[in-house]
Design brief:
Elements lengths: L5 H4 L1 H32 L3 H39 L3 H43 L3
Helix pairs in contact: 2-3, 3-4
Length: about 130
């Protein structure tokens, strides 16, 4: 494999956009948690606690998505450094680890989306029970 400086550099924009998307998901969930917290303080209901528990799980998933995305970004930069100083074999190993970290981040993202869709399906089924066709 011929790994030059440009190959790991190609991941920079993709990883940056991915981290931006993860951050937006995190901020949306954080606002929803704050809203549900206020709602629970004024009207304590078990269903709100269950929703907050689901959101806590999703926030932890997003944190892990971000950690592995940042690790991928770091390892891509490290790859470029090793190639720059002539340590191509170490650079190739770092690039492989970078790709694995990116794959792990995407796999966790896939799980977070599944949990999100399950939560929405639950909410919609609740409405469908109230208003049958």
């Amino acid at each position: 494999m011929d790994l030059g400086l440009t190959t790991p550099a190609l991941l920079f924009p993709a990883i940056s956009l991915l981290l931006l998307a993860y951050t937006n998901r995190f901020l949306t969930l954080a606002n929803l948690i704050r809203e549900l917290h206020r709602s629970y303080k004024s009207n304590p209901e078990q269903v709100i606690l269950a929703q907050i528990g689901n959101l806590r799980y999703r926030v932890n998933l997003i944190r892990n998505m971000q950690v592995w995305g940042i690790a991928s970004f770091f390892l891509s930069a490290l790859t470029m450094f090793f190639i720059y100083i002539g340590q191509v074999f170490i650079g190739e190993a770092a690039f492989g680890l970078s790709l694995l970290a990116l794959l792990l981040s995407l796999a966790i993202s896939f799980r977070e989306i599944q949990v999100s869709v399950d939560a929405l399906s639950y909410r919609l089924s609740d409405l469908e029970e109230q208003f049958p066709k």
